[in-house]
């Protein structure tokens, strides 16, 4: 197996007194697409927020590469390390134009952004047409594209996406997963939270199943897709199917 | 004509204070009650500094120290409460307001401090057939320049973009690599610079500074910000000019005793008719 880029170990996260994540461990290798699947409230978003430094873990470690500890770093320092998050529910800045939303994705960079704009527009031609539109007036699908494009503008080593397919039409969902393949081809590691287990496991090299704060199953995308329990619980398919 | 000029000038002074209220509200959803007292402190600083240094040193020094005061207030009294309920921050702001007034009371010994009259500002000029003080003519021009500069800063620079982003969503702004605390400090700094400049224009028309000198102009600036739509910079400026001009027109009609009452009546009317103000955001509250 290739080099590990992210290692999460014994991670506990609590909101007030309630534990949302109860001692999970997993790792992500360079260039992989890894997915966290699981039902509502399993703690998937909480895990990604902890990696980004938006919530502070109670205990456990999050390490980037060989030995760069991320626990205790502020979110801006983690972004500077090359980790960007496409948050749940898109969260584009509605009062900024499409172009400004992309520009602000590159907030920590001081070099020329022309290439990056070109790259993002090549992935999402719609965004180029809507350059000057306020992001708040975009459709849900367009906002999702913008949120992904914005995260790419920082030239991340790891891009984390929290349910990018949520609330999108099937055709747009397919687009988004196509883009994930595209991003991986460019050497970016992808950590993906998904409810849409079917699509997610198809693109993922490996998957982790989360249930109420714990990881209950791991395997390659194909293995998990073929697993009876997964098929029942997350793919809505009966045993005889 | 003289009254109209005076109104525009007063409006400009309110505008400089109102921008500080509105910007801080825009980013923190906090009504910074201490802002009026920072304005008063700037006035006192001018009194004390001009006794030992000439104007061209005192003016930048007043601005600098006022900025430091506002910066320190934010770091000590608001920043530690970032995750606390908004009401706690508001109470902290009221506390700071009284603290500043009481420190001022202690330092001045309760004596009104005579504000230095800059000869240039007090010079009389005749404009459009009306005779008035230089400061009345300079104020609107200076305000216009500062507001244009500010609008440019907010709409065209990187830090301005960060301010606009942070004003809608702290966490997502953090995910862009923005340091929210720096953005907030910067907002307070701009508010303080404008308040310090405003104080130099404002106190020129008044003989002295006392610890509660900030209250009335501060309150009027706050009303301006609400009337214009709190959170909106153009709103604060327009609101301030409306109030400044209306007040002075009432004085012209011989209704001087009612000019302050008018301001607050206007506030009540606006709150009843259009609570979000003239340029107010439609959104009810920050999520
Ligand atoms: N800010 C918060 N305060 C208190 N509890 C929270 C907070 N955020 C999340 N939780 C709780 O933590 C648990 C995990 O939430 P999380 O958002 O991580 O789930 P999720 O796996 O992403 O679910 P979904 O698929 O619905 O997005 C839930 O029980 C949730 O109620
Ligand atoms: Mg979630």
Fold-level CATH name of chain B: ABC transporter involved in vitamin B12 uptake, BtuC
Q: Widest sheet of chain B: strand order? A: 1-4
Number of helices of chain A: 10
CATH class of chain B: Mainly Alpha
For the termini of chain A, the CA-CA separation is: 34 Å
Please identify the top-level CATH class of chain A.
Alpha Beta
User: What is the 3D shape of chain B?
Assistant: globular
Counting helices, strands and paired strands, the structural category of chain A is alpha/beta
Q: How many discrete structural domains of chain A?
A: 1
**CATH architectural designation of chain A:** 3-Layer(aba) Sandwich
Strand and helix order of chain B: HHHHEHEEHHHHEHHH
Helix content of chain B: over 70%
| Class of secondary structure makeup of chain B | mainly alpha
How is the largest sheet of chain A built, in terms of strand order? Answer: 6-7-8-3-9-10
């Amino acid at each position: 197996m290739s080099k590990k880029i992210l290692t999460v170990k014994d991670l506990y996260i609590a909101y007030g007194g309630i534990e949302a994540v109860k001692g999970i461990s997993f790792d992500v290798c360079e260039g992989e697409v890894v997915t966290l699947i699981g039902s509502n409230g399993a703690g998937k978003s909480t895990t990604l927020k902890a990696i980004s430094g938006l919530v502070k873990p109670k205990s456990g470690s999050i390490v980037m590469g060989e030995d760069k500890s991320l626990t205790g770093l502020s979110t801006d320092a983690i972004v500077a390390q090359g980790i960007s998050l496409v948050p749940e529910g898109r969260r584009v800045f509605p009062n900024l134009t499409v172009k400004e939303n992309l520009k602000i994705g590159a907030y920590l960079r001081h070099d020329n952004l022309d290439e990056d704009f070109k790259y993002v527009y090549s992935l999402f031609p719609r965004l180029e047409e809507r350059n000057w539109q306020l992001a708040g007036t975009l459709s849900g699908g367009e906002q999702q594209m913008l949120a992904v494009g914005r995260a790419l503008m920082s030239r991340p080593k790891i891009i984390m996406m929290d349910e990018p397919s949520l609330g999108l039409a099937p055709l747009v969902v397919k687009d988004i997963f196509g883009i994930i393949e595209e991003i991986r081809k460019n050497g970016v590691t992808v950590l993906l939270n998904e409810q849409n287990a079917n699509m997610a496991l198809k693109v993922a090299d490996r998957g982790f199943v989360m249930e109420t704060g714990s990881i209950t199953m791991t395997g390659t995308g194909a293995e998990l897709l073929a697993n009876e329990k997964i098929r029942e619980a997350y793919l809505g398919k009966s045993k005889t199917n | 004509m003289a009254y109209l000029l005076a109104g525009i000038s007063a409006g400009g002074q309110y505008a400089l204070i109102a921008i500080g209220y509105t910007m801080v509200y825009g980013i923190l959803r906090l009504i910074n009650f201490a802002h009026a007292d920072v304005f008063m402190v700037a006035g006192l600083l001018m009194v004390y500094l001009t006794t030992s240094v000439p104007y061209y040193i005192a003016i930048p020094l007043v601005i600098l120290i006022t900025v430091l005061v506002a910066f320190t207030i934010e770091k000590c009294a608001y920043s530690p409460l970032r995750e606390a309920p908004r009401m706690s921050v508001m109470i902290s702001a009221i506390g700071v307001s009284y603290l500043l007034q009481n420190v001022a009371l202690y330092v001045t010994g309760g004596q009104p401090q005579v504000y230095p009259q800059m000869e240039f500002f007090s010079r009389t000029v005749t404009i459009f057939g009306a005779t008035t003080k230089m400061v009345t003519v300079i104020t609107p021009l200076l305000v216009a320049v500062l507001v244009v500069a500010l609008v440019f800063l907010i709409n065209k620079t990187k830090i301005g973009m960060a301010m606009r982003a942070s004003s809608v969503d702290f966490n997502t702004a953090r995910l862009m690599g923005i340091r929210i605390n720096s953005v907030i400090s910067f907002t307070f700094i701009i508010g303080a610079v404008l308040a310090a400049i405003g104080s130099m224009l404002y106190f020129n028309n008044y003989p002295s500074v006392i610890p509660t000198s900030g209250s009335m102009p501060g309150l009027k600036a706050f009303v301006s910000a609400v009337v214009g739509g709190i959170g909106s910079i153009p709103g604060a400026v327009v609101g301030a000019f409306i109030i400044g001009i209306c007040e002075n027109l009432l004085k012209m009609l011989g209704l001087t005793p009612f000019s302050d009452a008018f301001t607050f009546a206007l506030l009540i009317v606006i709150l009843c008719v259009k609570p979000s103000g003239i340029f107010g955001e439609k959104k009810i509250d920050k999520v």
